């Protein structure tokens, strides 16, 4: 068991094809990125992590074997040219990820999420060594469900500047794949949760209120429905897409196929901790033009990647809460609107 408390789940479901592969993970110290890095490390891959550490944390990866860290911005052409040189696979996770931030920093979101992605794939194409590129997208590009479960043919009707910036990146990656005959795949995770928190996402936000002794939870849109996937499962799908030939040219959804309301999510976490709670609306937490429902159809992931989720929500929430108990983090309190929590997570 490593220093972050994960057990032997980490490499289950991965084929033995990753040893000694040279793999660059952009954003590899972030939430999903650090889990991808951890799984690759345990498979014996030679991993280079490129991260600017605005939200990623060095302590999430510095104890892993076979990992080289490069500090840099994905919009820096020279840094990316150097980082992609001699790599065999590039998994691109670097992004500005926290939706409420995009209301106040839209230009930054487009610079990093869209132009940064173009910069990375373009240097992969020019590298002559990178044989596979994986773009990590977001289910937010779909907007709220017009039908469910949502497959890859669902219309893309993004509800936030963040989602638009991610969709722009996806479109660019797919077009460059076609223009250059370059082997790229797009993985589109639904809501991920788990250890190695970097932003005040809803699962750790609820857990931290509970762990801080609150009996009345202050939440926003508790009727919103999301499909929650444990981060270990999400990372495994991303890695599988990097080595499966049939994934080239495909967009692949990753989720559980089960929708859970934020209200249900809060009550389930309270139950795990043996607590009875009430929920109070905090209007400052309501997002403008919020997505109402996201539920994944992961049929393509099952067919192409032989992937399915392995960690149930109950088990995943318990693991996440245990991690948060062992690794306390804090946000600015009291909550006074989204700008006050911008990049304010602590170690």
Q: What does the model show?
A:
By secondary structure, the protein is α/β, with parallel strands linked by helices. The strands form 4 sheets. Strands 3-2-1-4-5-6-11 form a 7-stranded parallel β-sheet, with helices on both faces. It has a two-stranded parallel ribbon with strand order 7-10. Helix 1 links the parallel strand 1 and strand 2. Helix 6 crosses helix 8. It has 10 helices and 13 strands. It has 2 domains: about 20-195 and about 230-255, NAD(P)-binding Rossmann-like Domain (Rossmann fold, 3-Layer(aba) Sandwich); about 200-225 and about 260-295 and about 310-340, UDP-galactose 4-epimerase, domain 1, CATH 3.90.25.10.
Summarize the structure.
By secondary structure, the protein is an alpha/beta fold. 35% of the residues lie in helices and 15% in strands.
- CATH class term of the largest domain: Alpha Beta
> Could you spell the SSE succession in H and E letters?
EHEEHEHHEHEEHEEEHEEHEHH
The percentage helix is 25-40%
Low-pLDDT runs: 1-11, 340-347
CATH topology of the largest domain: Rossmann fold
CATH architecture of the largest domain: 3-Layer(aba) Sandwich
User: How many structural units, i.e. domains?
Assistant: 2
The oligomeric status of these chains comes to single chain
Number of extended strands: 13
Tell me the Rg in angstroms: 19 Å
Largest sheet strand order: 3-2-1-4-5-6-11
Q: What is the count of helical runs?
A: 10
Query: How far is the first residue's CA from the last residue's CA?
Result: 20 Å
**What summary fits the major beta sheet?**
7 strands, parallel
The whole-number mean of residue pLDDT values reads 92
């Amino acid at each position: 068991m490593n220093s972050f408390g994960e057990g032997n789940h980490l490499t289950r479901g991965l084929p033995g094809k990753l040893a000694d592969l040279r793999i660059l993970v952009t954003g590899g110290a972030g939430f999903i990125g650090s889990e991808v890095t951890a799984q690759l490390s345990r498979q014996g891959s030679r991993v280079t992590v490129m991260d600017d550490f605005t939200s990623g944390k060095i302590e999430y990866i510095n104890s892993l074997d076979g990992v080289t860290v490069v500090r840099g911005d994905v919009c820096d052409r020279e840094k990316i040219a150097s980082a992609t040189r001699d790599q065999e696979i590039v998994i691109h996770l670097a992004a500005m990820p926290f939706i409420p931030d995009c209301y106040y920093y839209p230009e930054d979101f487009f610079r990093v999420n869209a132009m940064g992605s173009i910069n990375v794939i373009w240097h992969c194409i020019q590298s002559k060594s990178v044989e596979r590129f994986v773009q990590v997208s977001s289910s937010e590009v779909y907007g709220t469900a017009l039908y469910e479960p949502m497959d890859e043919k669902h219309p893309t009707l993004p509800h936030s500047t963040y989602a638009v910036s991610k969709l722009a990146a996806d479109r660019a990656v797919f077009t460059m794949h076609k223009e250059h005959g370059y082997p790229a795949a797009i993985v589109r995770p639904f809501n991920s949760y788990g250890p190695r928190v970097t932003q005040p996402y809803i699962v750790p936000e609820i857990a931290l209120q509970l762990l801080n002794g609150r009996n009345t939870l202050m939440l926003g849109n508790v009727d919103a429905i999301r499909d929650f996937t444990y981060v270990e499962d999400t990372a495994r799908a991303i890695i599988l897409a990097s080595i499966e030939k049939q994934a080239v040219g495909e967009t692949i959804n990753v989720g559980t196929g089960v929708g859970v309301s934020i209200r249900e999510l809060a009550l389930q976490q309270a139950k795990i901790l043996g607590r009875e709670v009430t929920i109070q609306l905090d209007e400052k937490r309501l997002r403008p033009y919020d997505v109402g429902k996201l539920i994944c159809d992961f049929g393509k992931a099952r067919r192409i990647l032989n992937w399915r989720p392995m960690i149930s929500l109950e088990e995943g929430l318990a693991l996440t809460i245990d991690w948060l108990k062992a690794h306390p983090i804090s946000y600015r309190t009291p909550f006074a609107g989204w700008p006050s929590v911008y990049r304010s997570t602590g170690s």
